[in-house]
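Lab notebook: predicted structure, single chain.

Context: the supervisor wants predicted structures on file for every construct in the current expression panel, including those that have not yet been purified. This is the next one on the list. No modifications to the sequence; it matches the entry in the shared construct table.
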Amino acid sequence: NLQFSKISKAVAQFISDRWLTPHRNGGSAAPEYSNNMKVRKYMYLKLLKHKSFMAFWGTTTFFRLASNILQFALAIYVLDMTGSAFIYSTVLAIIIIPRIILSSVAGYIADRKECLQILKWSVLGLFVLMACFWIIHVFLMPLNILLIYVLVVCLELFETLIAPSEGKALMCIV
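Prediction complete. Output recorded below exactly as produced.
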């Protein structure tokens, strides 16, 4: 019995030293947590004042949002144009294929090339692609199913190139 109480005291001391340190002397973890939150808040505010980061964040957010909305709108347009749920679902399914096939290639390219150049050219490519298809649709002919498939695949190709470069670019910018 005496041996058991010595072991339980040793275990209790070990646990209190490792996990309950702020509470040991009647203290609280709240001041420590509060200080960490103040430091994080300051870091985030400092990051928001960083012009390069804000330009990067704004550009990539805008073009990713525009691309995703366009892909969804094209799928709805196909559903409205054909009335076929099968063709609608193939447009949504074809979005995934370039990401599955080319994600590792895009990661390799992001590791080997300068990430900011990849981002710059990918965003420019997205803009030119969207503008070209808008011109085709408005001035030449309405988009048919084949052109929509091509547009959706190309949009996803650019997004696949952008994704791994974004993570690496954050380290270069900040």
